[in-house]
Amino acid sequence: MKGLSLVEAGYRYPSATAPAVQGVSLQVAPGEVVLLTGPTGCGKSTLLRLACGLLQRHGQGGVLGRVGLDGQDPATLAPRVRVGRVGFVGQEPADQLVAGTVADELAFAMESAGQSGAEIDAALGPLLASVGLDLAFDRDPRTLSGGQTQRLVVAAALSAGAGVLVADEPIAQLDPRGATDLLAGLRTLARDRQLAVLLVEHRLEACWPFLDRVVVMDAGRLVADEARRDIVPGHPLLGTLRGLGLTVPGVLDLADRWGLAEAEVAGRLRTAPGRGEVTGEKAVAAEAAAAGRGEEAAAADRPVRVRAEGLRFSYGDDVVLGGIDLCLRAGERVALLGGNGAGKSTLLGLIEGRLRGRLSVHGRVVGVPQDPDLALFQPSVRDELAHGPLEAGHADVAGTVAWAAGALSLDPLLDRPPHALSRGQRLRVAVAGALSCRPDLLLLDEPTSGQDHDQVERMMRALTAALVEGLLLFATHDVDLALRHATRVLVLHRGRLVADGPPRTVLASLPASLPIVVPPLAALCLDAGRAPATAAELAAAVSRGPRPAGGPP
Amino acid sequence: MIDPRTRLFLVTAVGVLAICLEQPGALGALVLATLLPLAVLRVPGVWWRRGVIGVLTIVWSTVLSQGLFYAEQPRVALVELGPLVLWREGVRWGLVQSLRFVAVSLAGLGLAVSTSPDRLYAAMLRLRVPFGLALMATTALRMVPAVGQELWTVRRARAARGRPAWRRAPWRWLALEVGLLRPVVARAWRRAHALAESLDARGFDPLAPRAVRRPLRMGALDGGIVVGVGLVTATVVALRVLYLLYVGEVLYVPALRGVYGFVRGWL
Amino acid sequence: MLLSLLLLACADDAAPTSAAAPTGELVFVRDGVLLPRADAGPQGQPTSGDRVLVETPWTPGADVAVGRLHDIAPVKPECVPLFTVDLGDVSRLVAMGGEAPDTALAFSPDGRWLAVGSYRGEVLVVDAWSGAVVARQTLSEATVKQVAWAPDGSWLAVSEQSPDAFVRVLDPGTLGERWSLRLADIVEQSLPPDGEDLYGIYTLPAGFGLSPLADGSLLVVAGHSWAVDGVRRNRFQVLRLTDGGAIAARWPDAPASATFLNPAVSEDERFVALSVGFSADGDPPADLPVGGMQLLSLPDLKPVAAATAEPLEPWFHEARLWAGLAVSGASQRVLMGFGDGRLQLRDLAGQLVAARDTGAPILAGEVPIHVGIGWGALHAGQALVVTSPTRIPWGAAAPDLRPPSAHPAENSLQVLDAADGALAWSWSGDHSLQGLTISPDGDEAIVAAGARSADERRDLFGALVFDLGPGPAGGAERLRTTCSTEGPALFTHAATADGRIALVEAPEPTGTGGQRGAYRVTVFR
């Protein structure tokens, strides 16, 4: 049987009492793109590694059931054979590079498979083209962008002719444009090369258009396996997804909540109450008000935190920022948008003082690095939160810790070691650690990167409440996040500031050439002249549908 | 291009020489020699600048601290500034230690930036280095620049949130300095894991023969380098061993007195 | 002298014909003047710095004209450095606070060359007028112990302290080896203990007291004092080597468990006197005059006489003789100056002729004080001794005890009649005196001013030059000139018949960890 098949498959980690995954039966046929999703810790990654044989070879635990790659157990295949059957792609593209040139990177799997030099050389060009890359063979892969690297890694994983691709959150580190390009590439490969693709991802919205099937896992078992085209408003899977805390694509979600077809959502948004005015939901109200004129005028009286005129920065001859004028004030929540390499991190670095530049910054600046783990260096969450106030000699350290922990819902975790926490929790600890310093400027670099959307959402809401007088500046390529949590948006493109203003105004008129993608629901809201909000919020505000809104508020 | 096996050999030779040499002048020459391949590699200017600043910082801080706090006898004051005395023997010792460190670091860095992990793998396996060791070594080398960058980020993140003054709370300061390694180690572990998975998934089999698109080939240049550097290294090692036998009162050959003097004065 | 006067006269005649104006001034040195070559005309001996030495007698206060220059002569002559030879860095040794760096110096018999051997093992032959290096060689892992010229200047003998203790006879122009003898084969080999050991180098075998004899043979003491498994041992033997390195005579027949340092050869080369000491564990050999002197005949190295002295109880438990030893065939005397301060003159049979308590202990209030006799010489019927600074005797020494007053004989050069020991004259100063050199023509005695004495003045480092000729009885009038060095001058010095003096100086610790001065040789005139 061609493609990937799992029959009653499962895996028990050596120290665990119960299997992490059990009773999974699943088939991915050639040409099919299947999404495997589920809440954090449900066993998705374990299943993926089981599917490609990684766990069988290197895990010490017990394998249950059967796994078949084109009908054969990957555990019994010699590596040189296996590499021609299945390819694996992980989350962080840069960590998966094994070679020093693009050609060597692509050739590695073919070399493992025992192909001759001539065969390999002949295959290199078509391989690159198949993932839509046009690169010099001798280029160092470490100089590529995140999107390019991930595509190269995909091509490298498939170069030995694998018919199955297993990918673990391959778009986690990519900007929306990069993610779309990669997924579209996979879709094309599946069609053209009859590739079977099994994908783990929780950014459902981004993947949705490219999928054939959606498989949902919870607590180590499959709970749903549906063809994507069958999932229309009213499908029970949508309720299941919401029940597991997963984000359903916005328009579909709203259509489901309103009991409409997806195509009818736009019209309803235009006619429903709340258009152009403050809607009932509190969070939406605050954001809409912040974006409105009244508050903008008030903000002009607030103290200036960052001011720059013609700010430039370059690494050698490489100009990263070219002439940026900026004035950021206390009380603002500023989203810094732009694709990979637009200069967002550099601007943050300049404000934080990591880099030297001609700009004035007033007040205490605390930044959370892109990888929040790098800001966690204390043995416990409590120590992490106490570090700032203790070193600054604050009088009420315990009070500050309690406040910061409360703001980011960390109270139950205070005595845990930070590095033992989940990814979302670690981000919240890092942000709470920064918050406990009572900064005048809080800088976040790509807080959504590698994060559960839900987690980020909760954290941003907490920050909005905690940082009333402070300036929050966050770099992101998640437009939704900017729309919903920023009072102001700065758009950087190739080191230049190309837009600066209230999120709705800015995002409604973004040039299409920018690698920034406005999510469909937000785009519809903007078209309808209303504040972008989640489907849940919109449904709660305009609960006119036949079906009551489900899922968490 | 130099074969990766030759590069490994060069790094090993630098390590051996750094141990065998004790004179600042000889170690300085070794550092200069390790700079040579880096110059050939056309490392970008910004790295040179950082490198020079880094090297100077290491050397200067080691020399200064050793020079100020040298307590062994005999010692000779080099500079006397009131109660502060810079001891010549301390300066010398600091110079020796830091130059050793710099030479080995530069050689490792040169290997890390110039040689891709797969080529290194191939080289190490051809040299019959066990798979596990080869993987560890390659991963470690590959991570040198990234870990450096991360350590810097961690220090920045800590600095932004305040750092304990060394004077006020030495133990807290020390504990924090150690704690700073925590995230870097955690991150390095994850990175190593990702690389290992990637290699495995691409059919890397340490035990099976594998085809090579660009086979490792030792050219005349490689031969020349291996023979030349090998001879120099072997000579230095032999001289050091002879010298140690002499000062250890194990073996003394009157005819080798010139050699002993050379080792004491120049190596 | 006549010739130089003649030359002087010629120069005077020639002076008016020279168009150029005088460019320098006259520097009055002993028995001559130094002046720029341009002002001197064709006369004089060229020296370093484009100067010439014109030997001419002058009297204080007289208007002296030489070449195109003339000036009023001063009361005392100056002692001018001609050149220096840098000997490298010994600050580590100085910082260890031990002995001064062993250094060897010898002018060639004709005064043209100076041979230098350094603590760092370097052997140099330099032009003794200009300082230009003629030949240079480094003996690895060795300290040069002694250098000595053949009587005709045809070879240079070098002895070392090293695991091998070679005695080498070299060609002076190239330092190429003519022959060598490994003394470690006689007195055993040993290796340097840990490099940090204060006395590390001194426990290696060495060739002491190199003395070339008129017949072309070479006298040397092969010596070795070291420890084997914690037990201290001595091996010493006196050897006379033929030109070619064969052993022509030896004493005793087998290396003895005693030390024979500072052998003194009589001016007529009929005798050699050895100071016999003991620095090993166990009992000293009963057949040797330990703490005294052994006299041997030359060239056969047969025992002629021996003498010891009783320990000066209660202050001293043994008698010690170091470099205060001399023998003279012409005067028929052996001079023995002991470390406790006693001075003895004996005849060649070893019988006591005269004894003086020169520096022997006296009481300063309750505290005994003494001075030791460091160096001695017999010359032209005179006995010369150099005494040390005031000390507390060993038997009364205590950590905080300092001499309450100076011993009357401290830091002095004393000159006595060798026949009966009567004091002819003496000179004493503030500084510790180091070494005693009699110039080859016998006119001058040179004593170095070394480690600081009681006061803090530093301007007396260098050498004191005394007139030994018939003349005034007072010591002050005998001091002809003072040659100044920057750091303390060591006991090793050398002189030529024409009045040049070579001094070695070493850096001096400043007390706060630093050092002043340098390790170098300076040749003065």
What does this protein structure show overall?
The complex is a heterotrimer of chains A (553), B (267) and C (525). By secondary structure, chain A is an alpha/beta fold. Chain A has helices spanning 44-51, 54-58, 79-82, 102-112, 117-130, 146-158, 176-193, 204-207, 236-243, 250-258, 265-271, 282-291, 293-299, 344-352, 381-391, 397-407, 423-435, 453-466, 479-485, 503-508, 520-527, 535-541, and strands spanning 4-12, 21-28, 33-37, 62-69, 86-89, 164-168, 196-200, 213-218, 221-227, 304-315, 318-329, 333-337, 360-361, 365-368, 441-445, 471-476, 488-493, 496-501. In chain A, strands 5-6-7-3-8-9 form a six-stranded mixed β-sheet, sandwiched between helices. A six-stranded mixed β-sheet of chain A has the order 14-15-16-12-17-18, sandwiched between helices. The longest helix of chain A has 18 residues, at 176-193. Chain A is globular. Chain A starts with a strand and ends in a 12-residue tail after the last helix. The model of chain A is unreliable at 277-298 and 545-553 (pLDDT under 50). With 267 residues, chain B is mainly α. Chain B has a domain at 130-197. Chain B has a two-stranded antiparallel sheet with strand order 1-2. In chain B, α5 packs antiparallel against α6 (131-160). The longest helix of chain B is centred in the middle third of the chain and has 30 residues, at 131-160. Chain B is flat. Chain B starts with a helix and ends with a helix. Chain C is mainly β and 525 residues long. Among the domains of chain C are: 2-72, no CATH class; 102-256, Lipocalin, CATH 2.40.128.630. Chain C has five helices and 42 strands. In chain C, a hairpin with a 5-residue loop joins β32 (412-417) and β33. Mean pLDDT of chain C is 88; it is low at 1-19. At the A-B interface, α2, α3, β5, α4 and α5 of A face α5, α6 and α8 of B.
What's the helix and strand layout?
The complex is a heterotrimer of chains A (553), B (267) and C (525).
Chain A: E1 4-12, E2 21-28, E3 33-37, H1 44-51, H2 54-58, E4 62-69, H3 79-82, E5 86-89, H4 102-112, H5 117-130, H6 146-158, E6 164-168, H7 176-193, E7 196-200, H8 204-207, E8 213-218, E9 221-227, H9 236-243, H10 250-258, H11 265-271, H12 282-291, H13 293-299, E10 304-315, E11 318-329, E12 333-337, H14 344-352, E13 360-361, E14 365-368, H15 381-391, H16 397-407, H17 423-435, E15 441-445, H18 453-466, E16 471-476, H19 479-485, E17 488-493, E18 496-501, H20 503-508, H21 520-527, H22 535-541
Parallel strand pairs in A: 3-7, 3-8, 5-6, 6-7, 12-16, 12-17, 14-15, 15-16
Antiparallel strand pairs in A: 1-2, 1-4, 8-9, 10-11, 10-13, 17-18
Chain B: H1 4-20, H2 24-40, H3 45-69, E1 77-81, E2 84-87, H4 88-114, H5 117-126, H6 131-160, H7 170-179, H8 181-201, H9 220-247, H10 257-266
Antiparallel strand pairs in B: 1-2
Chain C: H1 2-14, E1 27-29, E2 32-36, H2 37-40, E3 45-47, E4 51-55, E5 63-66, E6 69-72, E7 81-86, H3 91-96, E8 104-107, E9 113-117, E10 122-127, E11 133-138, E12 143-149, E13 156-161, E14 166-170, E15 177-182, H4 184-187, E16 206-212, E17 218-228, E18 231-241, E19 247-256, E20 259-265, E21 271-277, E22 293-297, E23 302-307, E24 321-328, E25 333-338, E26 343-346, E27 352-356, E28 362-364, E29 367-369, E30 373-379, E31 382-387, E32 412-417, E33 423-428, E34 433-438, E35 444-449, E36 462-467, H5 475-478, E37 479-484, E38 489-495, E39 501-505, E40 508-509, E41 515-516, E42 520-524
Antiparallel strand pairs in C: 1-2, 2-4, 3-4, 5-6, 7-42, 8-9, 9-10, 10-11, 12-13, 13-14, 14-15, 16-17, 17-18, 18-19, 20-21, 21-22, 22-23, 24-25, 25-26, 26-27, 28-29, 30-31, 31-32, 32-33, 34-35, 35-36, 36-37, 38-39, 39-42, 40-41
